[in-house]
Give the backbone structure.
Amino acid sequence: MTYKRKKYHHGDTHLKKRWRLRNRKKDLDEIDTDLKEDNAEKLLNQDIDLDLPGAAQHYCLHCARYFIDEHSLNEHFKTKVHKRRLKALELEPYTVEESERAAGHGNFKLPTKRKIETQNINKKSLTDADGDTILEDDIPNKYFNECFEKIDLVREELRKRKCKIDLNKIQNLWSIYQELELVKSNYDREREEISKQLSKLIKSEPDSETTNKLKIQNKLIKDNLRKLKVPLWSAEEAAILEYLKLPNALHSTTPDSVNNVFFTHLSPPRSKKDHLKIAKDLNIMNFKKNENYYLIGDAAIFELGAKFYMNSMLRKSNFVQFSNPDFVKSVVVEGCGLDHTDPDSTFILHHNDDTKLNINNRLHLTGGGSLFSFMAYYTKNILYPKVLPLKVFTMGRQYVPSPSNEDSLFHVSQSSVVELFSATRTAQEMEELFSEMIQLLKLSYSQLGYHFQMSFLSADKLNTWESSRVIVEMYSTSLDSYVEIANISLSGDFISKRLMFTYVDNKQTQFPHIISGTMLNVPKLLACVLEQDEEFELPTQFQVKNWSI
Amino acid sequence: MVFYSILRVKFLRKLIYNRSYSYSSFPDVDIDYYCNSNNFHEIKQNIKQRKGIGDIERVLNVYKLMKSTPVTDGSYSSLKHNLYKELSILPNKTHPVVQQYEENPSVVHELNEKKSFTDYEPLEFSEITRRLNLMRTDKLGYTCGHKSYYFLGGLAELEESLIKYTISSLLNKKFKLVSVPDILPSKILESCGITINNNRTQIYSLDPHHHGPDLYLSGTAEMSLAGLLMNTIHKKDSLPLKLAAVSRCYRAETSNVIEERGIYRVHQFTKVEMFAVTTPENSESMLEYIRQTQEELFAALGFHMRVLDMPPHELGAPAYRKYDIEAWLPGRNMYGEISSCSNCTDYQSRRLNIKFKDGNHHGYVHTLNGTACAIPRMLIALVENNQDPKGKISIPKTLQSFTGGKQYIVRNSIPDLKLAKIKK
């Protein structure tokens, strides 16, 4: 083929593709029927269809187009294409009746014009700094009002937690936002009135003084509204960010300032021993520093055996086993109520990709045996209500930056753990499961034959996301105090709201209540067992011969 | 940048408790061998055959230059530094038998019969697990990062029973169990023959601004175990030393090759590793022993596999000889590597300063390592070979005592998930 001939067909395929039947979009009269309320509702709430753009979740009714996400849909509303379409739809479609009238049946009627408006854009939702939605509801108002209604209670709880959040600041921020919102709605109303008057006047006296005056007024208000936009947004964001820092509500079991011990098994060891020295003498540990230690021989068997023992206890009570990945993204860390930029709460991985570093989207090493890893599984997911309560567990690593300089197994940054996780429908169901789990802990640890005690942790020691925590403590003779070796925490719907973990009941979106906990922390347990009065030996339950049946 | 300057304060504080290890500054590489011009052709041929990096000509040039400069000269130390840098990237020697192989590995032998699937087409691991809801790999990029996976129910239990089975067998063989750290300083990694500090690194590291400059995630327990033995001297009669460890392994690289889809090559997985320290005379027999141990462990699980002696270009820099075991994966209709074992002779021990003592004679030990059980690949092999047309997976007899007598893995009771419909 000569080069010249090739040139004659430039653009052909491009046009042909456009005219193919499969690319045919809806006609205006079809869209007109879509605009009827029933149809419109159906189209705007379509089921998930993975073959369509954005799984058919972002649909523009007037243009009959799917968009990949909310952002592009909103951008589309601002385009000329969309506005032209709205204009085109204003005229009532041509009908058989109209054609008959034109042919002499009946009287001529001017086609009616309608006012077409862009479909109801999003209801407001709470977003955090990195722009992902974390609380989903019609109005953030509800949360703030709820919070301010019982403001004394909230203030009291903050005091108990010894938390330094300033409630007045939140209230101030919120009132600033509301003031701005009020100004905005006033402007909106004014503008509407002016445009009403204008539309009346503009036909009768297009160049009169009042018309011109109104035009200028309208322009002024428009400008003011535009100027208001930025402060309004930042006021909203500031208020919401502060609000999100508020800790979870306290549970009735949480004592005020002193731990409430409710169960004690056997009596504490008396001899003064140091686990590091004993382990060194027995040659079962090589402790270099908190970030770097080795368990050797019996201590390593202890680690595996303890995990296998706890696993079998959990399987007996119908928990389902998981095996989790060790990395989570910043969203999950933040959603679980921790500061994802704080290197003391999680290990942050080095970003050696070519892509630009975004501090809100990094990888964190938390270990599979952590609440984060379970939440990463359930984030943005819907459950069927019949599967609740959910009872799962995993064995794995847990990585926490070492909280202290002091060398000991109590402060190591890497632990082998057994972590459990549970989601329930209601607060009531959560309480029942909670007491069931406490019984399970009691049973599992009593069988080992060491002294331990169980207590409710006091409010000031709780994490922000917890509303109550039960801990198992063993006595460390080297520290001369009790050490927490296992825990179970209630967090209600605090985390599930932030990470959009939901279930549907009677067509209503509900947030499950979450219980989570570290059932076994091997290094801490090992340290306490080494400091017992008796010589160290592997508990029978942990021995290799008991791994199989 | 504003962000980092704020954090500099924290970084300084962190440095205080990142106490450094004490190292000898230069690894004791065999200079007499590498810098002897008589060995020039042998070494050059070896590098070429292994398609390895390193430039022996440059090493010799720097060496000559260094010899001709007096020790007191200012440039001497920088020359020495240069020389050791060049020396340390040279690969290990290669076993004479292996040198004869061309491009392809030689099959040592095959174990177990290939299971025949005459009446139905065997399915692939991902398809089987999807049908039984045993694994989730989709839509996790947003919360856990690329190529993450969760094992659910029966599959997680199978993982646990594999660890139990492997460890109790190894303990019977008098291996010493060690629990190792997964976060290591760079020195140990480099001594094991891993190149770090380049852009396309295979190793994850912790953020140097937040957690101190020198912390990496271990890619295999071999590195951590080598770190345990660093700077130690062993009595000759206490050798051979046989260690085993269960650990998490983190690897930054993955591939987009179609054969390696699914969980065949992943960023993080659990692995049981064997590690042996021997005297130089015994390292070759120890390699055979490790290979035999692997064969015994895997053969009892019933699937077909073949043992390969790997050709020079497949060897990593530290390896002297390497055996791979490949299992037959009927769903993929191919062999997949499930384990390898290699003899590193004195390559690692010279860099880590691990010695043995025989009377007054001191010498470098030989180190060997081998996989005892790499969970994801082992699960692929087990599930694909033991699938049932009716949709369940039978558990091999050997593992049944570790799964509490369970004979089959059936559909999991963990509910399917539905993607949240995000209405805003």
